[in-house]
């Protein structure tokens, strides 16, 4: 009874916090198509200026992978009015920080400044969009930077090619079949003209959203936004081809050899729907139920009780067009991978044939309430979420309402979605093993 009361109290506290943290914002569009979102938060003298472009690895050609991620680096090289090598110095000298990141679906740039430097941040982002300097010196410099990043984070990292191994087997038609960082030989082969064409096609105001979040005067911000971004010409509409993947109807097996590991990894992977769907959110809850923490079903059973694996995990790899649901494990000693898969399948069958307990359901609800609160507990996270919900979900107010979707998911839905997607005939089994000859695929 005491535990139940504590859980109820936690749910009430989290629910109250979530309601109190409703994110207010104003959105409008410039004549050139740039979508603008303003969120005021006067709790600290800080302002975030971010721009998200609807371009990622899926917008590349099969023989030119890595272009979107390359531009994440290239567009810090300099502009017509910011000399090469001066971008970061300018930010630092004015008390700011900045960064960028790329996924298969979008590229995101942001600056964090003291609130009295909003005009500087807006000017810099408008410069990146209007006056980028794309020349051979910059391309050659960033080519080496990206190669080093790939060596450190992928090629020389244990299990660094896991996502690549999964994606190239799970997708046959969709560009999700290659990785965001791409292949270095493709970047080596790209001409300066190809880089310039990529920029001209995707880095246009009508393919972007600008978010200003933090402490600022709204009227002044609008004036600066119009002054700096308004003159930028609208680009041609970005037309995207739609790729359909044939359903997986029969289990298949694949293998990848990694010279950086000694312990093999077993992976099962199921293709899942777009992150925009309700089913994708149910799969989020299923992955949390199965493997989030040491008290989760798979960890307790396979790692703690049966000691068959050193580690076990499940996660829903959600993306704009499709997703993947992965379950992985590191076998203990000589435990066969198929024995671990059998134990995993038993837990999935339970999900498919029995409703999870009321107590487990309440724990899930509490976890997702907590995640919601944490995702919006700082202005940096809010800026990112506003851009993402607008650009990739097509519904910016999900920043306030998505938690209601998770709250409304029932135990019956969890059972139904497990039945719909997590069946042996709908998956790949990947044997990710040490390289026998110390070479990599």
TrEMBL record:
Q: Where is the Peptidase M16 C-terminal domain?
A: 190-367
Q: Does the keyword Transmembrane helix apply?
A: no
Q: Which GO terms describe its biological process?
A: proteolysis
> What name goes with this protein?
Insulinase family protein
Lyase listed as a keyword: no
A molecular function (GO) held by this record is:
metallopeptidase activity
Q: Which organism is it from?
A: Flavobacterium tibetense
Q: Which domain of life is it from?
A: Bacteria
Q: Which family does it belong to?
A: Belongs to the peptidase M16 family.
**Which Pfam family, just one, is annotated for this protein?**
Peptidase_M16_C
The signal peptide stretch is 1-20
